[in-house]
Amino acid sequence: MERDLNFYLRALDTYIRFAARPPPACLTVTSVAAELEATAQRRYYVLSGMVLPALTRAMVRDVQTVARLHLVQTALAIERYRTQHGRLPESLNDLTPDSPSAIFADPFTGGPLRYLPQERGFVLYSVDQDGHDDGGRQKPLNAKSGDKSNCDLTFTVER
Prior knowledge:
Helix content: 40-55%
Strand content: 5-15%
Shape: elongated
Number of strands: 3
Number of helices: 3
Distance between the termini: 59 Å
Radius of gyration: 19 Å
Oligomer: single chain
Order of helices and strands: HHHEEE
Strand order of the largest sheet: 1-2-3
Structural class: mainly alpha
Largest sheet: 3 strands, antiparallel
Low-confidence stretches: none
C-alpha cells in the first residue's frame, strides 16, 4: 500500500504540472497518463489504478467546459453582429476585423473554432478531444455516455 501511495503522489504531481498549462498543452497529459495507468495496473497499485483514469477524464472535461464557454461567447458575438448588420457574418474574422479575440480559440487545437453559417442560423463547433474535424457532427441526444463515435462539440442557433 505504501508503494502504491508513493506512486500515486508522484503521478499526482505530474497531473498538477500538466493542469497548470493552458489548453491544448494540458491535454498532452493523456499520453503520459496512459503510461502511468499501465504502470499502476502492472504493479497492482489498486488506489492508483482506480483514481488516475478519473483524473485524466476530469482534465478532458475541464477543457470541454472551456470549449463550451468559448462557443457560447462566440455565438453571442455572432448574434450581436447579426443585430448590427442585419445578416450573419461570413466568417468569424468578420466579428473582429482588426484582431480576432481569444474567445474564438478552440481549446483542443489552439486554432479557431469552426463556424458554419446556414440558411436558418449557424453551427459553431470545437473538434473535441479526438482533434478530428467531423464537420460539426453533433453527438446524438440518445448516445450512451461511453459512446466513442466521432463527433464535435457543437452549438447550434436556428431562427
